[in-house]
Amino acid sequence: MSERETVRLRAQLSRERVLQAAVVLADREGAESLSMRRLAGELGVVPMALYKHVASKEELLDGVVEAIVGDIDPPPSGLPWKEAVRVQVLSARAAFQLHPWARRIVETRTLKTPAVLGYMDSFAGMFLAGGLSADLTHHALHALGGRMWGFTQELFEDPEGGPDPGAAAPPEVQAAMLGRMARRYPNIAAVAAPVAHDQGTVVAYGCDDQFEFEFALDLLLDGIERLHERKWTSRAAGSGTAAPR
Description:
Layout (H helix, E strand, L loop, with lengths): L2 H10 L2 H15 L6 H8 L13 H13 L11 H17 L4 H7 L5 H16 L4 H11 L26 H14 L1 H6 L3 E2 L5 E2 L5 H21 L16
Antiparallel strand pairs: 1-2
C-alpha cells in the first residue's frame, strides 16, 4: 500500500468506524482477535492511527460494548412497566445473541461508558415510571442481575461454548451414556427427562434456552409485581435481611 493510500485511509477513520470494524472482526474470529495491531491490519492502517480514536485495548473493549448496547431497541412508549421491562430485556438478549463473544466482555467491564450508564438508567426508569419505589427497584435490579442485558448462566451451560462431546455419538452410544448417568445420578436424570415446552413441543434430554430464559424472567417480574402491589419495603438500611411476608 502506498503512503498516499495509507494517509487516505487514516483520514477516513472515525471512532464509529473503528468500533464497527472491531465488532465485525470479533464476530468472525472471536473476542481474542481484538488487539490494536490486529484491528489496524483489518482497517489497513498502522496501529498508531487507532490511538486517536481508542486510546488503549481497554477503551476498545469498552467501545465495542457501547456499540452493541447502542443496537438495543427501546420498548414502545406507553407500555405498562412490567411489559416494558420484558420487551427491553428480550431486545437486549436479541442484540447480544448476534455477538455471543460480547457477553464475557460485558461481565469484565468495570468502567461504565455513557451508553452503558444510559441503558442502566433507562432500565431503572421503567420501574420507577411504573410507580415502584426506589427501594423495590434497587432490589429488583439485583434480582434480575445479568438478565438486564439479556443473558444469564444456564443450568447446564458449557463454559467454553463448545459442542457436546456426546452429541455426535451414534444413538445406541448416547442411550448407553444416558443409562449410566441415570443409574449414577437418578435425580438429575429425572429432571432432565423429556419435557413439554411451547405448544406441546417435546425436547428430549435438552432445554430450549429461550423458553427457560423467558420462564425465569416472567417468574421474577411476576414476583416483583406482587411485592409492588403489597407496597413492600425492605427493612432499615444495614439490616441485611429482607422484610417478612
